[in-house]
């Protein structure tokens, strides 16, 4: 019995679908995650390119759009366990070029920038209230890394009962094994998987 | 360059260590997760056996102990997206034998039972406040599944700045591939990995 | 300059209004809060009577309905600071008659019972996710006490960006001074005030 | 029977006390709350002076120190219901002088600045995780306004099971009636009341 067989037998992996008010959530596509000497590598740059397409489409469709950045205090006062596990995170301060959203995805008027210090876009932020204020029922997630902040954000999005879609070619990771493993977990338990083309066709 | 090399080069995977006030968190070791026709299988039963050792030790050491159960409302009023992805979850109601903690780990006086409906033991529960009330700084995590509720709980535990230890032989999963993949992710980014024997030796 | 003048000059007290998907939230109308020897007194029983009218109307209108109970663990394991400030709270366990919803407001199929241990109906519960799953944008709040769990729930409801209405004759308190003072604060900063009749007329 | 009698009869108002690791939390003492044409007035400036004494003492005692500011996005993307109730709030952007901490309390190295958009210092912030990382068990609260962001923060502090002390002469409000009414509510249900002098004598 394959792993997929086990999950099918236990009736995981059903579609949760798309509701009537989607938002686009772009996780941590900042300069530091495009540079393999910082947090980048793998298929992250490809995922930025595909996200750029979805961002243009979402703007035309007037979807609410939120983008996250990792931002720690200049004085290090909010560096916690995550900065012990991965010390370079603490360099991502407000004005560090590494913590700026990549140029290709520069936010425009009305788009919501979420500053966060933990993996999930929802943790210690006002994202859930912002989604409520826009009457959002579905969250389309792109960003990086699939095995890190995307996964954490997807768990919380589903836990708050948003229908959640992981955009398969809009999420990227520095290493492909964890990328694939986390897509599997998220599809089985938390979210639907759709490509950018499939999403554009759907609407 | 292997995946591990990439993470090492980017300086992930540092130890976060153990503080001075540990608690034991046992995630979802309930009857429904021991039965391969419900949510069980793989190495879950082995993990229960090892957790039983750690539970005895933790009681002797007077560690605060919390155990989670998945409990949905009898009338289905709180069934959300998670129950769409995995419909059998909604059977785990207060009095269903499947949602009772396994006999081997039966809670005793003073142990805290956390009822939850989402993957993380922290989501929609009072676990963080309970840990605060016990002055806990370190959370030792066992339970199932490694790729599901353990992973989600570990992300939140670290996000709240608890030093977090995943007990490698005290966590189990219905399928071994996801079990291993999630241990890798958690060690690199969120928690330390220690076996039951290593923990007992440490204290 | 009266207190109201100060608030008007600083431009507080604007209407936040009612959206298109209201829910009814009934806070802590359980037997222990009808008994002046436990937590009752003042205008609480009157507020229950008026809430009963609004509950019937809400059921006809098919509004999602949630009711909270205070429920502490039988073994006392989750008694925290709140139970130090007010020790009788810890008696409100699952099967204690004092923690059961008053007969006049008995929940029917599909209504969501929220068990909580803290003042706010949102704290350590899945209420926000439940409201999301129903696409709610407005929360009508009745219950008790105005100066306690109602106030705390209203702050959180507004903080999550729900349009929030405090039902003036559907909320009650053991003492009238704090009842009035808290209605003032909530109207100025967090919510609109409407009577049951005004709400029924509105829809 | 006075209101106080009712609360005494029902056994409210017990002391929750001070633990072994206190932190100082200063809520919203920013320039806009010192100006009666914005959000100021009443006894707020007096409370800032007393807080300055407690801040000096807390630095000598090496208590962890956190200060909050209200900060909304420059582009208004995160303005929610609170900004409908009180529209001037949306002016409090990152670089507006009104949202800067008053000079008298300027933070020094290691002190944690919490940016928030909602009443509670805990809502949508990482404050609870920061307190965990410092092993804090007691929160001493000063700031403004007593009937607004102080009250909301105190409810959450207690809900997370921190022993909470409202510093009576370190909290202020634009109007004295609500200031007094909220001190009463907080003492009865959530926190202990102590003056700056009493706190300094205690340690």
Distance between the termini of chain A: 37 Å
Give the overall shape of chain A: globular
Low-confidence stretches of chain A at least 5 residues in length (pLDDT < 50)? Answer: none
CATH topology of chain A: Rossmann fold
**Domains of chain A (count):** 1
CATH superfamily of chain A: Isochorismatase-like
Global structural class of chain A = alpha/beta
- The total of beta strands of chain A comes to 6
Spatial ordering of strands, largest sheet of chain A: 3-2-1-4-5-6
Largest interface (CB < 8 Å): A-B, 55 and 55 residues
Oligomer classification: homotetramer
Mean pLDDT over the residues of chain A: 97
- What's the SSE pattern of chain A? HEHEHEHEHEHEH
User: What is the radius of gyration of chain A?
Assistant: 16 Å
| Discrete helix count of chain A | 7
CATH class of chain A: Alpha Beta
CATH architecture of chain A: 3-Layer(aba) Sandwich
Helix content range of chain A: 25-40%
Largest sheet of chain A: 6 strands, parallel
